[in-house]
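User: tokens in, sequence out, please.
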């Protein structure tokens, strides 16, 4: 099987192959792919993305918090150990998180810790749509939000990450 698929090929995937290809479009959350498989055939990549977004939107808050908890801290311990998923590693590198100064790393480590302590889940932002400066600014600003605001913002960021991951598997045919 090639690295990229057409939407027709997606619609022909059996359950196991679908999970194998789409099980990490939401970080470590293959249940999402399992849930949307039954909605085939998908008209296009946006239809598949909408099915995933609907799944996320219908989760209770505890489920949404769980989805956010599956994400690693940005430039955190897993990144230092080289233990990120292939997708997360590429996304963090694209944002320039691998080129941070020691001071920037410490700031991110400290704010990640404060964020996780306050909200109970890690700071999630679509790294591929941001650079390290915007990420550092964003986490500091978002620390001022309420838990409800951050839950909603975090899930919206997950949806952005998902769309970019989907497009890497099924390039837009339009």
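Assistant: Sequence out:
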């Amino acid at each position: 099987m090639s690295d990229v698929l057409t939407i027709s090929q997606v619609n022909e995937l059996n359950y196991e192959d679908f999970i194998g290809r789409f099980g990490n479009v939401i970080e470590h959350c293959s249940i999402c792919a399992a849930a949307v498989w039954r909605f085939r055939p998908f008209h296009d990549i946006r239809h598949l993305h909408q099915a995933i977004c609907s799944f996320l939107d219908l989760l209770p808050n505890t489920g949404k918090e769980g989805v956010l908890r599956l994400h690693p801290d940005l430039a955190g311990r897993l990144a230092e150990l080289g233990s990120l998923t292939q997708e997360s590693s590429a996304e963090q590198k694209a944002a320039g998180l691998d080129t941070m100064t020691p001071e920037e790393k410490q700031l991110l480590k400290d704010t990640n810790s404060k964020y996780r302590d306050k909200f109970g889940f890690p700071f999630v932002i679509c790294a591929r749509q941001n650079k390290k400066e915007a990420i550092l600014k964003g986490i500091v600003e978002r620390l001022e939000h309420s838990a409800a605001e951050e839950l909603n913002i975090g899930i919206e960021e997950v949806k952005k990450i998902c769309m970019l991951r989907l497009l890497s598997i099924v390039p837009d045919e339009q």
